[in-house]
Amino acid sequence: MPNFYDDNHDLRFYVDQYIDWEKLVDLVELHYKATDAPKDHKEAVQTYKDVLELVGEFVANEVAPRARAMDEAHPVLKDGKVVQCPEHQAIFEQLKEMGIYGMTVPRELGGMNLPILVYFLIAEVFCRGDVGSMTHFAFHAGMATSMVEYSLREGTTERDKDGRIIKTRWDAYVQEIIEGNAWGSMDLTEPDAGSDLAALRAKAIKDDKGVWRVTGNKIFITSGHGKFHFVLAKTKDENSLAALSLFLIPLEIERDGKIIKNGEVDRVEDKIGHHSSATSSIQFEDSEADLIGEEGDGFTLMLMLMNNARIGVGFEGIGISEAALRQAREYAAERPSMGKMIAEHEMIADYLDEMEITVMGMRALAIEGAIAEETANRMALDVRQGDKDSKKEMKRAKRRARLITPLLKYAAAESAVRVTRLNMQIHGGNGYMKEYDAERLLRDSLVLPIYEGTSQIQSLMALKDHLGAAMKKPQAFVQKLAQAKLNAVSSRDSLERKYWSMRSLALSAQQHILLQIAKDKFSEARHVPLANFLETFKKWNPKTDFAFGMLHAEHLTAILADVEVANILLKQAQRFPERREIAQRWMERAEPRVRYNWDVITTTGERILAQLQRAQSSAESKETRASH
Length: 628
Known about the structure:
Blueprint: H1 9-18, H2 21-28, H3 41-63, H4 67-72, E1 76-78, E2 81-83, H5 86-98, H6 116-129, H7 131-154, E3 158-159, E4 165-167, H8 171-178, E5 184-187, E6 203-206, E7 212-222, E8 228-234, E9 244-250, E10 252-255, E11 258-261, E12 264-268, E13 279-292, H9 298-334, E14 336-337, E15 340-341, H10 346-381, H11 388-427, H12 438-445, H13 455-472, H14 474-490, H15 494-525, H16 533-536, H17 547-551, H18 553-575, H19 580-603, H20 606-627
Parallel strand pairs: 5-8
Antiparallel strand pairs: 1-2, 3-4, 6-7, 7-13, 8-9, 9-13, 10-11, 12-13, 14-15
C-alpha cells in the first residue's frame, strides 16, 4: 500500500538522523518523571514514527483519492449549519476512530503527548494528500493544545511537583475535542480590518454580573463552523493593539439541560480552492465569553497562535509542493514529445530540478523553525527551568524562532505557488483541464501567501527585526559584514565561500537600506532650525521614515530566506557529507536570486518613492485648501 511518509526519503532523513530527539523528548516528557512516560527517547521516537507511518498510509489511501471529489463539492450553509460532502465526513469520522485529535495534548488529559514538531511533520504529509483537509484537522488538535497552553500561561492550571497537569481551566472543552465531537477556530479578521488589527471593531464589555460579552462580525474564518472560538476583541475604545483582549467563546452553551445559542455562522465563503475546508463569517451578539489572560494581552496571546499557524503554513506549502513535484515527475516521465519523454528535454529537466531542491530547502527551513519554536515554548513552561544556562538556551531558541518564522511563512508560501505553477506548465494543456489535478494544486496554493499574515506582513516583520538589530548594535553589524566579506574570499571550502558571498550580499543590502533611510532623515533635518537639528534624529515616524526599507522589504526577505536555507544546508553538509550535493544545488540556484534582489535594492526605488511623495503632497495641499 502507498505511504506518504515511507516514500519520502528527505523527510525521513530528519526523523531518523537530523532531529535531536533526546533533547526534545526530555522536555516533552518532563524529564521522564511520570510513571507512564517512555523509558527513554528511543522508545518515544518509535511511537512518533509509528504515528507518522499510520498517518502516511491513511493520507495516501483515504485522503488523496478523495481530494478531487472534495474539491468539486463545496461546503454549503443549510438551516444555520455547514454541510460538507460525504467524502469529507468519511475522512473525519475515520480520524475520530483513529483517536489522534489529541495528539499534542498532554497524556494526563487523555492525549498522546506528541511534540508539536511531530504534528508539523504530519501536516506536511497530510497536505500532500489534500491541503484543505489538513487545515480543518489543524483546528482539532491545535485548538485543544492551545487551550491547555493558555491555561498554563495564565496560571489557571494545577500541576504536581513534577509538572504533570492535574486540572486546566477548560478541561471539558479539551475532552470534547479529543473525543472528536468538536473543534474550533481563531477569529481575527473583520470586514474593515485584516492586517491592521488595531482597526478591529468587535467589542467586549462586562455585564452587571461580571460576565464578558462580545459583539462583532468576524470573516474569512477557517473551520469557523466549529464550537469553540478564540476571538480578538477590544476592551478599550481606542485604535491600538493595547486595546485588544483575547476571548474563548463557544457557539453553543449547555445550561440547565438547554442549549443556548451564543453566536452563529451566517455565511460560507465561495473560494477558488481549499474546498474541503469551510471558511465562514461569524456573528457574535452579546456572546458570553471567557477572558484569556489579562485585559490588553490579546495581541501578545494571539501571536502565540499565529506563530504556530505561520510555521504550519510553511509545512502546508511543502506538502502541496511535494504533491506537485511528484505529479510533474510522473507526467514528464510518461509524456512523449519530439522523440523522447519530456523529462529528458532540457527545460523540463531544469524545472523538475528546481522544484525538487525548492521543496528540500523549504523543508530544512521549516524543521529548523519548528524545533526552535517548540524548544523555546517548552523551556518557558518547564517547571525545572531556572538555571542560567537553561534561560540562555531558551532565549537563543526564541530568537531563532523569531528569525525563521517570517522567512519560512514568506518563502514556503511563495515557492508553493511557483512549484504548483511549474507543475501546471509541465502538464501543458492538460494542466489547464480539470481532468488533471495540476490546476487544483495551483488553486489550493494561492491562499498560502495571503492567510495567517500576508507575505507582505511577513516581509515587514523581517525588515523590522533585522534593521532593528543593526541599528541597536551598529558596530557589531559592521564587523559581521566585514567578516562575511573576508570569509567569502578566504574560506578553503568552495561551498563555504559561496555561502559567505551570499551572506555578505544580505548584510550589504541591509546596510544600503539603513544608509538610504539615514540620508532621507538627514535631508528632512536640513529644513528645521539648527537648534532642533539633532532632535530630528530622536523622533522616528515608522510610517514615513522607513519608506525605502518598506518598499524593498520583500526583496530583502527573499534574500534572507535564501541565505538562511543555505546556512542550514551547509551545516547539514558538514555533519552529513551525503547532504553536500543538496547544499550545492540550493546555492547554485539561490546565489543568482540573491544577487538579483541585492541589485534591485541598491539600484531602484527612488522613482516610486518620489511619485508617492508627490501624490501625498498633492492630497495634503487639497485638504488644506478645502479647510480654508
